[in-house]
Amino acid sequence: MCAALRSKVRSLGANPSAALGRPLPQGQSVSLRHGDSLELLSGQHRFTVHFLPPPTTASGSSAAHQDSSSGLKRAAGPAEVPSPKRARPDGAPATGSDEEGPGEQSDGEEQETLAEQWTLLENDQLLMFVTKGVKPSSKIAAFDLDGTIITTKSGKTFAKDRDDWQIIYPDVPRKLKELSKSGFKIVFLTNQLGISKRKLLPEDLRHKLQNITGRLGVPVQCLISPGDRWYRKPRPGMWEYLIKTENGSRAVDMKESFYCGDAAGRREGWAPKKKKDFSCSDRLFAINVGLRFYTPEELFLGQPATNKYQLPEFDPRAAVDGARTAVPVSAARTEKEIVVLVGPPGSGKSHVTSTQLVPAGYVAANRDTLKSWQKCVQVAEQAIKEGKSAAVDNTNGDRESRARYVQLGRRLGVPVRCLLMTTTLAHARHNNKFRELTDSSHQHVSDMIFNMFKSRYEEPTTDEGFSEICRLDCLPTFSDQEQERIYRLYLLEK
C-alpha cells in the first residue's frame, strides 16, 4: 500500500549530502519514506520526500501539500517564514470559516490510520507522528511527553540519547488504554526545541516515539513543535492545527477533552521534597485553548490538585481589558523640546513616538536605525536647529546615556523632558513575542538584552536635569480582532 512505499537515494557527488538529519557520504544509500528529509548539500537545499498519491492521515486527507511536478517538496527552514496575512501568526492555520484549507472534509476522512506516519508540516514548523489505528474523535485526551508520559532512565534532566527514557509511572499504560477504550483519541503535544538547535535529530525522535507508543500499546497521534514560533506551547498552534486539520470532520467536545502536563507553575515545596516546576507552559497552554488541566500526579497517581502554583505576573487579558477603560495621556507638547524616552525593548516607546510625537512634528532619533548614539545626538541637534522638537526613541536605561541629551538641551537652550514607560519587563517580553509572531520582519529580542537592561537600569530623576518626568502606560491597540485574540494569549512559558 502507499503508506509503505520507500525511495532509495544514493549520494553520487563529492560534496556531502544528508538524509534524516545525518550525513550521507559519497557512494552510500539510504531508504526514505513519505515525510523524510533530504539535503542535497548537508545543511542546505532541503527537500521533503512525498509520494503521489500521498499516504492517508488520521483525517483521511493527504499528509502534506504536494508539488504536482515532483515527488519532492521544498520545505522552508525555520528562518524562512512566510509573511503573515493580517495579524495571523507565522505558520498558523486560519481559525475562521471563510478560508479553505487542508481541513476541508472529504470522503473517508473518518477512517483510522492504516500505517505509521511521520510528516513535516507548515514549513517545517510542525512535525507529526501517527501510529496505526488512530481515528478522529470528539473527545481528546492530550498530554505533554517529557515529564508527563516519560522520564529519563539516567535520572538526568535531559535524555543522554534516544534510548534514555522510561514510562514515568507504572499506571500510565493502563490509564491510556482505559481512555482509548472510552472513545478518547490519545494525543501527545510536545515542544522539542532541540531539533531546531540541531541537538536532537528528527529521526532519533521518531525512533523514540516508535518505542514509547509500542510500550504504551494504544494508538497515538503526536504533534511536535521543533522551534519557537506559533506552534510552541503555551501558544495554541498545535491544538488549533489538530482540531482544524487532523481530526476529520469531528468537532471537539471541549467539556469532555482535557490536557495533562507537568509544567504547571508549581512552587517549591508544592509537595514534600518537591522542587518548583521549570515553567508554567502546560497550565498556560490549557488556559489558552480552554481545556481542563491536570498534572501527571493528579491524573495517574490520583493526587489532589494543589493551589501552590503561580501564574506569570503579567496577565495579557487584564492588560487588554484595562486599556479599554484607561484615559490616554498626550505625550506631545507645543513648545520646542527634546524628549528622552526610557523603557526596555517592547515597552511601547516606538509606538508613542510614531503615533503621538512624529505626527505632532517631532523628529525621531532611533539607535536601531542610526546605529550609534552619536548619530542620535546629531539628528536631535539638527532638529532643534531647524526649529523642531526631537524625540530620542532608545532604551536610555542609565544616567550616562540620558546625560548626552540633557547636555545637548542645555547647550541649545531647550528643555529636556523624560517620558518614562511604566511597562514591566514581563509585559515588555510579552509585547516582543507578540511582534515576533505577527510581524516576520521583527527581530528577536533575547533574554540577555532584557537582563542587561535590568542590571544597568537607573530610575530617571529631575536631578539629572529633566524639566519634567512623565509616566506613560503601555496601552495596547489593535488593527483587527485577530490581533487582539493573539495578544490576549499567554505567549511566554513563565
TrEMBL record:
Compositionally biased intervals (Acidic residues): 97-112
Stored Gene3D superfamilies: 2.60.200.20, HAD superfamily/HAD-like, P-loop containing nucleotide triphosphate hydrolases
Compositionally biased spans, kind Low complexity: 58-70
Classification via InterPro entries: HAD-like_sf, HAD-SF_hydro_IIIA, HAD_sf, P-loop_NTPase, PNK3P, Polynucleotide_phosphatase, SMAD_FHA_dom_sf
GO molecular function: ATP-dependent polydeoxyribonucleotide 5'-hydroxyl-kinase activity; double-stranded DNA binding; polynucleotide 3'-phosphatase activity
A GO BP annotation: DNA repair
Region annotation (Disordered) ranges: 52-112
Keyword line: Kinase, Transferase
Protein name as annotated: Bifunctional polynucleotide phosphatase/kinase
Chain's gene name: PNKP_0
